[in-house]
Amino acid sequence: MAERQYPSRRPATTTGSFLQKLREHAPNSTQLVGLATLVISGGILLLLTGLTLTATVLGLIFFAPLILISSPIWVPVGTLIFITIAGSLSLLGFGVAVVASVSWLYRYFRGFHPPGADRVDYARTRIADTAGQVKDYAREYGGYLHSRVKDAAPSA
Question: Three-state SS string across the chain, please?
Answer without folding.
Answer: CCCCCCCCCCCCCHHHHHHHHHHHCCCCHHHHHHHHHHHHHHHHHHHHHHHHHHHHHHHHHHHHHHHHHCHHHHHHHHHHHHHHHHHHHHHHHHHHHHHHHHHHHHHHHCCCCCCCHHHHHHHHHHHHHHHHHHHHHHHHHHHHHHHHHHHHCCCC
